[in-house]
Amino acid sequence: MFKIGRFLGQVKTEMGKVAWPSREELISSTVVVILATLVLGVFIGICDFVLSRFINIVISGVL
Predict the structure, then answer these.
(1) pTM for this model (two decimals)
(2) What are the Cα distances from residue 29, in Å, to 18, 40, 41, 63?
(3) Contact 21/29 with Cβ under 8 angstroms?
(4) 35-52: buried (b, 16+ CB within 10 Å) or exposed (e) per residue?
(5) Per residue in 20-60, pLDDT tens?
(6) What gap in Å lies between CA 33 and CA 27, rounded to an integer?
């Protein structure tokens, strides 16, 4: 039981040392992550579409 209390005390101490971002930094970082995810998703979707068309052409041409 004493180990849990000591652990929680250490957690509280360490959490006080954390450099928390400001609200503006958090919002801008979130926007960057969302935009990067959307761009990457579109890129992967386009690659998938092009490659699947290419494979279909190759398969239908061979058979």
Answers:
(1) 0.65
(2) 17, 16, 18, 50
(3) yes
(4) eeeeeeeeeeeeeeeeee
(5) 999 999 999 999 999 999 999 999 999 999 999 999 999 98
(6) 10
pLDDT tens-place string over residues 3-21: 999 999 999 999 999 999 9
Which residue's structure tokens are 């990067």? 36
Question: Which residue's entry shows tokens 């971002």?
Answer: 21
Distance CA 28, CA 38 (A): 15
Both structure tokens of 43: 């890129």
Dihedral over Cα of 33, 36, 41, 42: its sign:
positive
Query: Under 8 Å CB-to-CB from 29, ≥6 apart: which residues?
Result: 21
